[in-house]
């Protein structure tokens, strides 16, 4: 069967072009904290990654990422609407926490891959199970097959997380407008 060039395939191709020779450091966490950069706000998030039903974070519970450090699928009967998207939660307590302070839990960069925003100035759909909490901010990453290999952009991010976050913050206004 012939591969189709969908926008997602093209974006992944752009993201990964030239990355084959990137050296990977041990994926440890940075000991030094980067300066606190203002979070992207709902007003600057006019370009959210949602599915055709308007569900953000591919249906994963954003509170679980931040408060529990785990990627957990949300349930449709525990939904909340915010900023033009529907978020799903694994528990009533998580839904209440989100509704009391949505900005604490919203994924950065519209829910797109943080590495792609930083290094390729592109929007790439992440794998919802590959994430980092950095300076209290939820970052999602592409992690999947590409040209016969599994590519985990979070490992590349971990080589220099503080400078990557600064770069992504700087690039997001122009990337979000694309």
List the helices and strands and how they pair.
Elements: H1 7-16, H2 62-68, E1 75-82, E2 85-89, H3 92-100, H4 102-105, H5 114-120, E3 127-134, E4 137-141, E5 143-146, E6 149-152, H6 153-157, H7 161-176
Antiparallel strand pairs: 1-2, 3-4, 5-6
Instruction: List how many beta strands DSSP finds.
Output: 6
Output the structural class: alpha+beta
Q: Helical segment tally?
A: 7
Order of helices and strands: HHEEHHHEEEEHH
DSSP strand content: 15-25%
Order the strands across the largest sheet as they lie in space. 1-2
| Uncertain parts | 1-11, 18-38, 40-45
Mean pLDDT: 82
Write down the domain tally. Answer: 1
Q: Report the biggest beta sheet as strand number plus sense, adding barrel if it closes.
A: 2 strands, antiparallel
Query: Which geometry do the CA atoms define?
Result: globular
Q: State the distance separating the first and last CA atoms.
A: 31 Å
What integer value in Å does the Rg equal? 16 Å
């Amino acid at each position: 069967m012939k591969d189709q060039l969908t926008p997602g395939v093209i974006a992944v191709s752009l993201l990964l072009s030239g990355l084959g020779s990137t050296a990977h450091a041990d994926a440890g966490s940075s000991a030094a904290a980067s300066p606190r950069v203002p979070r992207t706000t709902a007003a600057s998030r006019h370009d959210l990654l949602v599915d055709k039903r308007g569900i953000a974070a591919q249906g994963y519970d954003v509170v679980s990422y931040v408060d529990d450090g785990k990627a957990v699928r949300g349930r449709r009967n525990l939904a909340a609407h915010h900023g033009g998207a529907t978020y799903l939660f694994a528990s009533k307590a998580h839904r209440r926490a989100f509704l009391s302070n949505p900005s604490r839990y919203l994924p950065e960069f519209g829910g797109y891959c943080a590495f792609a925003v930083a290094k390729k100035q592109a929007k790439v759909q992440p794998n919802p199970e590959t994430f980092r909490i950095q300076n209290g901010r939820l970052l999602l990453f592409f992690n999947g097959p590409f040209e016969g290999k599994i590519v985990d952009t979070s490992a590349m991010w971990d080589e220099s997380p503080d400078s990557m976050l600064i770069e992504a913050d700087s690039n997001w206004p122009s990337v979000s407008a694309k």
